[in-house]
Structures are given as C-alpha cells and as structure tokens.
Amino acid sequence: MNYKLVTAFSFTLIALAMNAALAGDIKGKVHLEGSSNSAGILVYIEHVDSSFAPPQKHAIMDQKDLMFVPEILPVLAGTTVDFLNSDDVLHNVFTPSGCAGRFNLGTWPKDKIRSHTFTKADCFAILLCDVHPDMQAWIAVLQNPYFTFTDKSGEYEIKNIPPGSYVLKVWCPFYEVRSSSVYVKDAGIIQKDFNLKR
Asked: What are the structural domains of the chain?
C-alpha cells in the first residue's frame, strides 16, 4: 500500500479546508505489541466542528493478485469508491457492515468497475469477496480529512490542524481501538504516542 500517496492526498484536502492561518501539528509513534512492523496504522481526529465536502473524484480500491489494494482505504463521508478488478478471474465485493449498507455489488470480470458511495462517518466497513474467501479489506469512512498512516517504525504526523480540543484515535484491524484527548494550539507540535494490544 502506498501510504505516502494516501497521506499526501489527505494533506491536500486539509489545505483546501482550512479557514484559519494558524494551526498546529500532532506527531507521535504507535507500537503494535507482538509485531516488528508498525506500518499502515490509521491515526485520525474523530470529529472537527466543520463540514467537509467529499472529493468529486472517486477513490479507487483495486483487486489485484487476489488481494484488495489498498488493504485499508480512508475516505471522507460521502465519497464514492470505484472497485476495479485487475485480475484475470472474476471478483465480487460485499460487506456485512451495517454502517455501509450491507451491500453486495455482484461479480464482474477483469478491467470492469463497480461503485459504492459511503455516506456514514465513523464507519469501518470490512470488504470481502464471495469468490475468494481469503480476501479482505476495510473502508474507513471519516468525518474530516485530518488523518494519516504510520510508517514502518510506527511514526506519524498530522499537520495544519485548527486550534481546539479533539479526540485522536488509532485504528488497526484486529487490534484494540485507542483514543486520547488532545488540545491543539495555534502553533507548535503535540507529541502523542500509543501502544496497541490485540
């Protein structure tokens, strides 16, 4: 998964959404107990007192080499996701998650796309394939664009956050969800570290 690309996209949304010139940053490190690789952990602010329009351009989740790519896709509420099949075999996409509507998009061949719009924020929908039971991925539907992924060492940084009090959350499949209250000043960096247990 190209975490740098996803992070750059989130920072672009943040720049477009900002109304104030003053902002602070949150950075830190997340450790996964029992794992030597802490990459790909989603760190995000739960709620910001503002509205954020979803992008007109659709997000894309591919099905390639019998895997969902990326495995975790964070999107703003209201975003439409295109599900592309890049394999030579048939693929299916469905979710049992109620917050995403428990949809089933059916089965389609290589180079075809089917789409779904995710409207409910704070939804972490698991995606599965009827044809290949070992395939799974997640769509993280968020209220705002202040999110990022950890790198291999577990380090993360969310930039240009408007001053205020927030709940910072950390999410990784099969691990506990952790949260912490933070107060962002109009300048400077807050350090917040987490330790996740299964």
From this structure: 22-51+150-198 (2.60.40.1120), 53-142 (2.60.40.420)
